[in-house]
Design brief:
With 73 residues, this protein is mainly beta. 8% of the residues lie in helices and 32% in strands. It is built from 1 helix and 5 strands; from the N terminus they run E-E-E-E-H-E.
């Protein structure tokens, strides 16, 4: 429901605090969300018990799985 609400944001117009959504599963649906932190990076928790990370959105894994972004404020 987060992905369906808020305003859609183009990848080249991201601002700090925008939520970015990814399809990490096989079905091509939203299955992971992160917070855009600026400089082409996203804050995300890779899994339970793992340390949060700040990978680049141009990283092959995230670039391939990027579905879109939303702004709420």
């Amino acid at each position: 429901s987060q992905y369906r609400s808020g305003r859609s944001v183009a990848r080249d117009a991201l601002q700090k605090g925008d939520l970015v959504f990814f399809a990490t599963g096989r079905r091509g649906r939203v299955s992971h969300v992160g917070i855009y932190s600026g400089g082409g990076r996203v804050i995300h928790a890779p899994g339970r018990g793992k340390t949060t990370r700040t990978p680049s959105l141009s990283n092959g894994y995230f670039k391939q799985r990027f579905l879109g972004a939303r702004r709420y404020l």
